[in-house]
Amino acid sequence: MAEISLTALREPGALTRAWRISGFSSRRLAFYEDFLDSGVELRLYCRFRAEKLEGRGAPDYAIVREIGDRLAQGRSVAAALHGLVPPSDLVLIAAHESRGTLHQGIAQVIDTVREEIQLRSEARSQLTTPLLYMLLAIGLVTYGLPWMVELMSKNLLKPGMMSLDQRALVAFTGFMAHHALLFNLLYTVVPALYLVSLPRWTVASRVPGRGWLDRHFAPYAIYRAYHAALFMRSLGAQLAVTPKLEHALEAIRANSNRWLADYIWAMEQRLPSCRVRPILALDVGLLDAAMVDSLMLVSLRGESEQAIASRAQTACKRASATIRSYVAAIRVAAYLLLGTVLAWAVLSLMTQTIKQQTEALSNPAAMQHVR
């Protein structure tokens, strides 16, 4: 297990120089698939692919050449991929390499990466639609509601039209509507922007999931639950091939947070000028340390791998349920905002109609003119 300790990404020629954060999973998947299709050993494949990629000017050539150089030095495949792929890939590859079934292990890694890409795509699509509805509602409330209330105020606050209490209520509503921009910025716009971006001050925390904001901010909980689901799905595949479950869990437990911190560091080195980065583009197996600790305790108590796999599946379902609950909450908020706008629009039209009818009844000359 020493060869796959996964302690850092800061080796020369590691992920900091290639396989950039944009499309990282797709690039990884293409590397694995092309290797299986080539039918040659990995060292030769890396040599020819690096030359091909370098000729096209693709940034992948550096990392592929690095893998080939490590293999030429006599390292194992797991050691050659150390620091260049996620820990979940290495656990599967190392387990199959020790059994002499490397190609079968890479095939399982391909299935895991495909599932990872699919899950991230589903999560992004589930979050995008309610966010668009919410932003639309924010715009309507911010710009439409003040105009409607102002129109109502002009019509209803005339002498004799309403009682003093009713006029005070309309005036207060108008005040709130005129300040809708401030309230929207505080309670809707800022969270929505946070959901689709990762500010630099959050990256500085190094290990997400430990601060007050991370524990209480719902959109970030979606992100954590999503990656927890990714990890649990990959763990289910690891249980089928890892000879000793304790070793796999130990490697993941010892390096998950460090790997995440180094990944963020590598991202900072590649994108030093960017101040905002997409959250869902972070291609890393984020998991809560408490989750791994609980799995370790289960394994130390001597429970079967089937029992641990069952617990992992349950945790995955809980994480997926968390994602669905937060998405549902966002949708409810968007529908409430849209409902508020529609209600004010209907009320404004009714008020305008009542005003016109009242003026027509109180002014016979105007009535005759209308006729």
UniProtKB/TrEMBL annotation:
Compartments where found: Cell membrane
Assigned GO CC terms: plasma membrane
Record carries keyword Hydrolase: no
Coiled-coil boundaries: none
Domain annotation Type II secretion system protein GspF: ranges: 63-142
TM region(s), chain numbering: 130-149, 169-196, 326-347
The entry's keywords: Cell membrane, Membrane, Transmembrane, Transmembrane helix
Main location: membrane
Keyword Cytoplasm: no
Record's bilayer topology term: Multi-pass membrane protein
Designated name of the protein: Toxin coregulated pilus biosynthesis protein E
Taxonomic source organism: mine drainage metagenome
High-level lineage: unclassified sequences, metagenomes, ecological metagenomes
